[in-house]
Design brief:
two-stranded antiparallel sheet, 13% strand, 20 helices, Spore Coat Polysaccharide Biosynthesis Protein SpsA, Chain A, 3 domains, elongated, 628 residues
């Protein structure tokens, strides 16, 4: 009798494990396709770059408040604020709150200092300091009710956001049924290949879940919700980014997912850090099932199916895996079926454990994926047991506390990078546009070249053109160096005594004609030849000088990565928002613009609209002589 009971329970456990990991994703994919083919096709209002909006359309946009909870985030807070300064959204409609929850480092001081930088002064930013570290949930419960806005965005300090994220969000919330909007989460530097595969899989699941009515929760890196729908969370809430969105879903609103809103996690994680984080997630998963058990009711239909298949079975998976293996081993001597099942399970666990102990072992993608799944379910099992035993208090703690000096080892070096995330269609279209625009630009401006050349010659002795080595596109095996072409704007041998130095305001080395050429950006016309050669693009990050590169890479986090897989540009987000570099701080503030631009290259239309906006603003700067 007991054998029959154990065999039945073991088979049920195996079926549920297979269903959760294979059957559910396949069924979800089929249902999402079927649902999208049945539903009437609706067109989401397009998120148009603000450069093409008039004041009336700006006035119609929702008021958005971005809350950034922070606990000992001195290593990241400055880069976070510079990224927020690069977001394309009307300043009158945007407010930012940095909520410092009992920070014991310089987070608040650095936040205020960064907010006062030239590139960030347009932000309506408030830095709130709480004397005691009470936890993230307590901070949210106190701050969110004070926000005067239509939409609240919550974002982690170590995540940077694509520059058109808020415009995309405003377009999504034009649908009154949407109560929560989740972004597409990416990890800049996954700790393992399994971690990268897992988050790609999770992103696909959330897109398919959204087609059925609701994504299961959100990711704290960046998500938005309607301010009016917020209710204070229980003080011991562990995973607020699940409980808060699903409470809104329980009220009848939809949780949407927007792939074009990208949240890029910059903070690298080790295997040990990830294991601790997933223990906490496991504890939170069990708590979520308890707090949101009403979502299991059949009246929630698709949401109930998603919650049961995606969340409840995730909580149970660790227990089911243990029971399935033990049951198969107990019955292996009585049945050839269970003997085969025991051998298969043992073999898969052997691969996973081998990969965990020896990461360099040639187990392939399967090995790394299995290792990440097994370690994840083990962490979840431990975490859920801790919660059941009352050992998990729900207090917000950083998994790791990085100092500024600790950040550099986490940067990927050129021989470790993967291929660029640029959409292949975007890459081809961008190159075609470069050739067409550069060709037309040269054809239209060549008659002006002799006039500029004559003015330069009459103003100061020396050559008409100026060449200088610059850092170009970074590739896995090499970094390209090229000679940039410009009309000369400085006296000859301007750096013969000083060596390579940054430009300065009222720089005495700049000639009178050079000053005019810089203000109108006409000095950059010869760079159209660099574009045709393939050294540069019309739009992209600013190419830096090799002489400054080591100094900048050491002083600025993620400086090197800004041109990985991307051609530097004649103009770009950084160039239209700031002038020439006069110090390392000028370059530092440009890095946020460069990374924001890189994020949108994964989607065609956001990139296309942004490039048009940048080129339009560049033309305006040239006509108004506002170049620096």
């Amino acid at each position: 009798m007991w054998q029959q009971l154990i065999s039945s329970l073991t088979l049920i456990a195996i079926v549920l494990i297979i269903y959760h990991h294979l059957g559910y994703p396949l069924l979800l994919r089929w249902l999402s396709k079927k649902t999208s083919s049945i539903k009437p096709q609706t067109v989401k209002p397009q998120a148009i770059s603000r450069a093409f909006q008039d004041s009336a359309s700006d006035a119609d946009l929702p008021r958005i408040a971005i809350m950034v909870p922070a606990y000992n985030e001195a290593a990241w807070i400055a880069e976070k604020i510079r990224n927020l300064a690069a977001l394309d959204y009307p300043g009158s409609k945007l407010s930012i709150v940095i909520a410092c929850d009992g920070c014991q480092d310089e987070t608040a001081a650095l936040a205020r200092q960064t907010a006062d930088e030239m590139a960030c002064r347009h932000l309506n930013i408030t830095v709130m300091e709480f004397a005691e570290n009470r936890g993230k949930v307590a901070t949210m419960n106190e701050v969110i009710p004070l926000l005067a806005c239509d939409l609240v965005a919550l974002s982690d300090v170590s995540a940077i956001i694509s520059c058109d994220a808020l415009l995309q969000a405003a377009a999504s919330f034009a649908d009154p049924a949407v109560g929560v909007l989740n972004s597409h989460y990416q990890i800049y530097q996954p700790g393992t290949g399994g971690e990268e595969t897992y988050w790609q899989y999770q992103g696909l699941l959330k897109t398919q879940e959204a087609a059925l009515g609701a994504t299961l929760g959100a990711h704290g890196a960046f998500y938005l919700f309607r301010r009016e729908l917020f209710e204070p969370l229980p003080a011991d809430t562990i995973n607020d980014d699940f409980v808060l969105p699903m409470r809104i879903v329980a009220k009848g609103y939809r949780a949407a997912h927007e792939n074009q809103i990208i949240a890029l996690e910059l903070e690298a994680s080790s295997v040990a850090m990830d294991f601790k984080r997933r223990q906490r997630i496991g504890a939170g998963n069990l708590q979520q099932v308890v707090l949101l058990k009403q979502l299991l009711s059949p009246r929630y239909r698709g949401v109930a199916f998603l919650f049961t298949s995606g969340k409840v079975l995730r909580v149970l998976s660790g227990y089911l895996m243990v029971f399935a293996l033990v049951g198969s081993l107990l019955l292996a001597g009585e049945s050839s079926v269970f003997l085969c099942l025991a051998l298969i399970q043992s073999f898969l666990y052997l691969i996973a454990v081998t990969t965990l102990i020896f990461p360099a072992a040639p187990t392939g993608k399967l090995g790394h994926t299995l290792a990440y799944l097994v370690s994840g379910h083990a962490a979840s099992l431990i975490g859920s047991l801790r919660y059941a035993l009352g050992l998990e208090k729900g207090r917000w703690q950083r998994v790791t506390a990085l100092s500024a000096s600790d950040r550099r080892p986490f940067i990927i070096h050129s021989n470790q990078r993967q291929s660029s995330a640029m959409n292949p269609i975007t890459a081809k279209t961008k190159r075609v546009m470069d050739i067409i625009i550069a060709g037309l630009g040269l054809a239209l401006t060549l008659p002006v070249f002799p006039v500029i050349a004559l003015a330069i010659k009459l103003d100061s002795p020396g050559p008409v053109f100026f060449q200088q080595r610059r850092i170009g596109q970074m590739l896995p095996e090499q970094t390209r160096i090229f000679n940039i072409l410009k009309f000369r704007t400085m006296v000859v041998n301007a750096e013969s005594v000083t060596g390579a130095v940054f430009a300065s305001k009222a720089d005495p080395r700049i000639t009178r004609v050079g000053s005019f050429l810089r203000k109108t950006r006409l000095d950059e016309l010869p760079q159209l030849i660099n574009v045709l050669r393939g050294d540069m693009s019309i739009v992209g990050p600013r190419p830096e000088r090799p002489e400054f590169y080591q100094q900048l890479e050491s002083a600025i986090p993620f400086f090197t990565e800004r041109t990985y897989g991307i051609l530097p540009g004649i103009t770009g987000l950084a160039q239209i928002n700031q002038g020439y570099d006069t110090s390392i701080e000028d370059v530092r503030s440009k890095v946020a613009f460069d990374h924001s631009y890189a994020l949108i290259l994964g989607s065609f239309w956001p990139w296309f609209r942004t490039d048009l906006m940048i080129m339009g603003k560049t033309f305006g700067i040239m006509l108004s002589r506002r170049g620096q």
